What does this fold into?
Amino acid sequence: MRYEGPIYRPPSEADSLLIQATVGCPHNKCTFCMVYKKGPKFRVRSVKEICEDIDEAFNLYGGKAKSLFFPAGNTVTMPTRDLAAICRYSMEMFPDLQRITVYGSSQYVAEKGLADLITLRDAGLRRIHVGLESGDDNILRTVKKGTNALEQIKAGKIVKEAGVELSEYVILGLGGVGRSEIHALKTAEVINDIEPDFVRLRTLVPKINTLLLHEFKKDRFQLLSPFQILKETRLMIENLQCRTILTSDHYTNYLDLSGNLPEDKGRLLDEIDRALNWNQSRFRPFFIGTQ
It folds into this structure.
């Protein structure tokens, strides 16, 4: 199988077969993301090449794959006909396949529309991972996300209406100290409107080769302390009213918070409250500029 450029996948796809469908990211402007800042340039691989890699995977592993993730960034931008074709071919080659998954930013999901998402669902697409990051338009503009809260809501509802599972990612601390409260409240508001299947928490760590790290080093961005992150998380969870699965499946987080909302909200808030009474030395070291 052929891979080009960085290949990233969500932690929840750790056991998935990875077949590269796109190279790079068509947006590639987010100030917090280092993944494709030094290339490669975005392009869509041909259906022929992708199917050849699917054939090779079948020869290597047999037809027993149960989940398949198509990297790289924003594979949902593939022409619907092509993405549907590789989904269908995968379903034919791997009869035990239970889930096909891609990354897809809100602006590209919204551009696809409901009809295309239904086509993809019928072809076998079962889950889309979307970087919500924040529900605050000011923060989204600042980090150059390329979308806004209304478009995030529109895209999320399209995915849900199409019958595709939706994972929304939130970056804790993305608004810095100054917008921590509004970040928590606005993000909860957007999540409540979307009602995603999963809300996955990430804690901001400034990465190498990013504008956000540069801003931090120039004292133009103030990172939150572990306690401030926990208080922001608490405020967001407290204001979540929808039914969803919340999980913090990432190494950046200070606390492992996982549960079904709204049933587990009380327990999650209690866990945060207990952690707020810990000595700060119990948290992982503060670090920046890592990969």
